[in-house]
Amino acid sequence: MILETYAQNALLCNVSVNGETSSSGLYAFRGDMVVEEGEIADAQGRRHPPKSVVKQAVVLCNAEKITAIAGAVDDLGYLPGFIAKYNADFADGIIMLFYVANVNRPMMVAIEGYQAVVIPHDDGAVWTMLMDDLRMEKSDFKGQSAEDKVITIVDALKEFNPKYEEKSFNDALSFTVEVKKEARGPV
Questions:
Q1: What is the top-level taxon of the source organism (predicted)?
Q2: Which domain holds residue 144?
């Protein structure tokens, strides 16, 4: 199974859901997906934390192909790396939605032959933002397992048809902004 391969290759981290749904042959994942791995830290091959990830990814796949993914990235520039790393495992017609910290407008972005919905965000939980954007309520998930909730949100994502401007990746880069992070912690 594709998610097991990713786990064995240390491409999944902060996992909250990773298992088979009640629909035979469908698997759900929620957690972070590594885009750019950290440097090798020691002689045993252990790595430093990843340099970039798709945070809080919501993924639905069958045993061989990813059919849908939503998640958050800090920089629009991470998306080509994500696609390069995982596109061999993309199903035809894959659904992709990314909340991107450094863009100033929502848009449909063509990246390496794939279409992705890109929406600006500023540190919200991906699941909550998806529910808001897809106009879903907690009652839509009542009685479902964590894995089956991913199916429900992906089904709503299939119906999501925003009227955002279509941009090439290079054009989309002109709508990036500098992100200023607030310092947090004890004073």
A1: Bacteria
A2: 2-173
